[in-house]
Design goal:
Blueprint: H1 13-16, H2 21-33, H3 35-54, H4 57-76
Region (Disordered): 1-44
Biased composition (Basic and acidic residues): 26-35
Amino acid sequence: MDKEEPKRVGRPRKYTDGTTTAQNEANKRYREKNKQRTRRTNYKSHGKTFITEYANVDELTEIIELAEKRLDDLNEK
């Protein structure tokens, strides 16, 4: 009786072995050097995901109002 290996959980190895330690370190250095840019990119991504996948009508209406107010504030400058 051959013992079966437990089923692997998580990302397939073909996706995890491709990134080298050097690349991981380079990514880490970039994120440290560009904290504001990274934070802004994350906020933008999360906002788009929320709007396109999770927001209901009331939330979308509120977002539109906030966006219009922000546009007015930016145009006044």
